[in-house]
Amino acid sequence: MIEMNVAGIALDASSRLPIVLLKDGTGRRALPIWIGQTEARAILSALENQKTQRPMTHDLMSNCLTEWDLELTRVVIHSLEDSTYYAIMTLEQGEIKKEIDARPSDAIALALRMNTPIWVLEEVVADASIPVDQEADEQEQEEFREFLENIRPGDFLKSSGGGEATG
Prior knowledge:
It comes from Acaryochloris thomasi RCC1774. This protein is α+β, with helices and mostly antiparallel strands. The chain is 34% helix and 34% strand.
């Protein structure tokens, strides 16, 4: 799994639908998830620490979890099927742990309010992410090619103690 952070909300130029953009820790891969207007507002309000006079839906949910001593320990976006992402939220109370099915947009809005990490399965990132820093990716690939060209079989025989492995 790869921990991702919410980079922000964008607007799809063709469909005019909001997109929540998740980025990995290196900032080199981004995962765009198309969401609804209401969820986009909920995510934006959490990102900007906006307070409303009365609790909105995700604020209400956060307040309920806190009052009932339930901890949202993680959000996992685990699959992508027919252009639809699927997520689970892990809730814990003491020794009890429950996984709850959720739309990624709702899970993200709640995770932001509760300072909970957002994780995405590597397969989903591999299938749906977009490169953000093409130049760095190309540099890394070139360095790896050079590494492969210069490696010798004897390099694999050295143990951590400096001696040679026997076999």
